[in-house]
């Protein structure tokens, strides 16, 4: 199980900036670095993911690198022997059971949720996923989810 206490998601910038910041996050204690860059081609995400994964592995070998949304890219990087540990998928991406079949039992698979109903429905795939992410926590320039940011929820009992 990855250390989810500090989960870093890459943002906008040049590939060199993204790689530099991701490595700094790993050095600073991030247990997971998710490579997210929207919109981006599969080829460009492959190259960016490879460079981020290599830089993160040098900075902190225990930090896990996940590819956002693209199971095919994560699978290709893992097949090439790159230090990519899995994928984080959303509700409209490849189903998590299919992702697990492609990536194997040792891959990390996370699933985005954003409502109580989606959190509850994640129980149906609990044997396939490693964690759920609930969001968005706040508005972000890297992705438009279509959902209202959740913010802090100290009084909700989920």
Task: Summarize the topology.
Elements: E1 7-9, H1 15-27, E2 32-35, H2 42-59, E3 64-68, H3 71-79, E4 86-89, H4 96-103, E5 108-113, H5 116-121, E6 131-134
Parallel strand pairs: 1-2, 2-3, 3-4, 4-5, 5-6
Helix pairs in contact: 1-2, 2-3
- Work out the strand percent: 15-25%
Trace the largest sheet across and list its strands.
Answer: 1-2-3-4-5-6
Number of helices, counting only DSSP H or I runs of 4 residues or more: 5
Residue stretches low in confidence (pLDDT < 50, at least 5 long) are: none
In whole angstroms, the N-to-C terminal distance is 22 Å
H-E string = EHEHEHEHEHE
Structural class by helix and strand composition = alpha/beta
Overall mean pLDDT = 90
Give a short account of the largest sheet: 6 strands, parallel
Shape: globular
Helical fraction equals 25-40%
């Amino acid at each position: 199980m990855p250390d989810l206490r500090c989960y870093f998601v890459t943002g906008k910038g040049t590939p060199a900036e993204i790689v530099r910041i991701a490595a700094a996050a790993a050095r600073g204690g991030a247990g997971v670095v998710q490579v997210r860059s929207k919109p981006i081609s599969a080829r460009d995400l492959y190259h960016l993911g490879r460079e981020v994964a290599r830089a993160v592995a040098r900075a902190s070998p225990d930090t896990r690198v996940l590819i956002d949304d693209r199971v095919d890219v994560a699978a290709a990087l893992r097949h090439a022997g790159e230090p990519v540990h899995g994928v984080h998928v959303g509700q409209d991406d490849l189903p998590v059971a299919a992702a697990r079949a492609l990536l194997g039992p040792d891959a990390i698979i996370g699933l985005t949720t954003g409502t109580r109903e989606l959190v509850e429905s994640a129980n149906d795939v609990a044997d396939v996923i490693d964690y759920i992410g609930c969001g968005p926590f706040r508005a972000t320039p890297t992705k438009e989810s279509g959902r209202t940011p959740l913010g802090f929820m100290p009084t909700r009992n989920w």
